[in-house]
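Let us work through a complete example step by step.
Step 1: write down the sequence.
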Amino acid sequence: MASPSAPGPAPEPHAPGGYVLDLAEAATAPLSRVGGKALNLGRMVAAGLPVPRGFCLTTDAYRLAAPPELADLAAALDAGIPRAGLSQSAPDTGAGPDTGMEAAAQAARARDLVGAAPIPPAVESAVRAAYLDLGPDTPVAVRSSATAEDLPFASFAGQQDSFTGIVGADAVLDAVRRCWASLWTDRAVAYRTANGISHTGVGLAVVVQAMVEASTAGVMFTANPVTGTRTEMLVNASPGAGQAVVSGAVNPDQFTVQTATAEVLHRVAGDDDPDRGWSLDDAGLAELTRLGASVQRLFGSPQDVEWVVDAAGRTWLTQSRPITTLYPLEDPMTGEPLPVPPEGQTRVYLCGTLLQGLTRPITPMGLTALELLRNQQGLWRYVNPGLRMFVDLTPLTRSRWGRRYLTRVLPLADSRSAALVPGLLADPRFAPGEGPSAGTDLGRVARRLLPGRGRADHPRMDRGAPAEIPAPGEGPTPAERPARVGTSLGMLADQLPRLARAILDPRGELRRTDAYARRLDAVLLLPGPATAEERLHFAENLGLRTTGGLLKATLPGFSAGYLMLAVARRLLRGIAPPRELEAVLRGLPHNVTTEMDLELWRLAVTLRDDPESRDAFLATGPATLAARYRAGTLPDTAQSAVRDFLARYGHRAVAEIDLGMPRWAEEPDHILGVISNYLRLDDPDQAPDRQFGLAAAHAEERIRSLVDRAAAHGRWRARLLGLALREVRELAGLRELPKFHIVRILAEVHRQLLLVGEDLVHRGAVAAAADVFFLDFGELRTGLRGARLQETVAARRRLYDVELRRRHIPRLLLSDGTDVEAAALAAAPPSGALAGTPASAGSATGTVRVVLDPVGARLEPGEILVAPSTDPGWTPLFLTAGALVMEMGGVISHGAVVAREYGIPAVVGVPDATTRLRTGQLVTVDGAAGTVRLVPD
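Step 2: predict the structure and record it as tokens.
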């Protein structure tokens, strides 16, 4: 887009393509010239939809009027836009406007400049002539139409000003000037900044339309914006002008309408006049539904439509913009809709990304790699809308065995999702035995759950069509089924001796896992020198070569530990409640994540004893420390200690299951910031190694207590209990090992792909090496053969950045777009209490620290960590936290397990905890009751 200070040659004001265009002409004009509102109105006019007469004053007029100084102010505001992307580095707080205050001053200066600038004579003449064409003294609406407005990812609803009831050319010109100035309101500047949109390139057109004398007006959403359901429309209506509805000045009638039939599903009366009756009858709603469906077909996506019904009963459409808050239903690689079975059944998907502790999206290459790893085991069907993994639970909901599985297992993984299951299972669409592809027997469901799908069955190793749902009768033939089930049973039979060996020889199991780690070291080496093609082949196949052996080597150990925990629980029936066993899991040895955290603490202790290192870390931010580390200019003690730590743990990262994320070895900012936090810990009783030691001692004391109590019920029971609990202590800590090694594999794939990316940069196929993470393996091969991939990368990066800013992720998503939790909350809003699932017993009172991203986060000792979710990249913060509160998770989620091991109270599955709690509030967390209570001042 042109800069405001460089308008270019002035067009002829009355010529086609001049300062003024008829709305019908705006349909084919570029967005940069007419803005989003005018472009959409023009397209509706061209499609024959009822739109009031009007014209568009183009951005050429704004750029001609804009004073030159505006360009410098816009550039200064651009410096404050946070850059979304893959970097884990904390933002450089020295750049850009100071916490919004300077931005507000710059925006005010821009408004003053635009408001004081004269309207050029050619522009004034064009506006006067166009207004006269509408009729002398015609009341009009004068509305802003920004180039960054009504976009698929940012609607800008209400961010620029509009004026109604304007009469006379002079008044229209004054309203035009005020529209121009509104491009620089604080709210518009803040909205552009939050959405990563440049202030320098933005421009403003103005729409002038004849007013419709409204008997009724309002807003129509062609998909339900509350629940996400694409098969419903939501209509808000009130007598009189629609501006009152849009602005919230009245409480309108609300109608929920079935799109296909125009059946009114639900009515809620407004409260402005209870005696007036409904603002729309069924015939009016049916007409709106018909027009809404036409508008949605025209634009190809759900729309937010403003409408007016005149005194004669005719409906007019005055605006349409995309509904940008809906969770997407398209495959991110192809743009195609989610797969639907031939019989059109509704599907239900569980967000697996949330179960992994991630709210952020996964890069396209990260999703591709996870597909490769999943396919080798063939456990579940996945879809990836919004660059997140969703597992298809539909076969389980339609199976009696699957329903029992969901109600028993899901609460352990995610209590909030589990709370939604009873309502979901009561939905007749998911009734067992219904429909031609229903799985009503255990065998059919088991075949979906057990491994046995080879690479040849994989629907998309490279970019192509999304996975299709098999039609009835497709899948394994009767002759193939025994072989597949036999393969799965064979794998299970192969694991049983390994499990027994781990139970009988736990020390030997520890030696075997160490030996596997050394073997994996060798497998991860690619002999050099290697070509880019060889590196790509190595990276694509590394997961397939290693995952099976990894699971065989690492699953038996911790599985044996938790099997012994179940045995202990059985032996303690009638002696002690199951919750008493939680203490046995505290301070577990052989947990690689705990070992990593404690090693990081020991590193901090080393730096604390070195004055030069301590001063450097306490006086310098993480980004500067990282730059000094990469340059080799940290104090010698710090440089050496950090290098040694990253040599062992540098493959890890925040959101580490996404191989597209930079590893700590590349961007150590997060780790260096944690070290700085540790150096501020001056209470020796709060030292993490001391806390871990106390937790381990408490676990040993609990074992002695339980064994002594069991002895009163028999000597052999006590001896068996003691043996089982010792095995739990020895082996349960290995539960982190499979993921630790998977992340090692992903990190090596990441490293090799970056080298491929550097080669592609030299060939001109991509702009930056990290662009490879926005492609898949097939696309990278085409790049190595000479294809230019910049446009594909740019489109995927835009989607990634949009999803990175999304705050709410559906836990359970239906294929019609319904967010199951949102629909449940809409039907029964929650009380004000903060309650979740008890995850780690104990009580702690402290100051809330809301952390949305662990990178650069500062957590003072004893503060209550409130987070959307956590993965291993968060665990260094746990060492100083007084308690943990999470929006996601269940009792076996990562954060809950680590909290129990560290001995800090935890409550998980607390809805909207990061918005309902604020940093600085004093709360008491009760990990046994599952509550978070505000402490009165």
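Step 3: interpret the result. The chain is about 45% helix and 10% strand.
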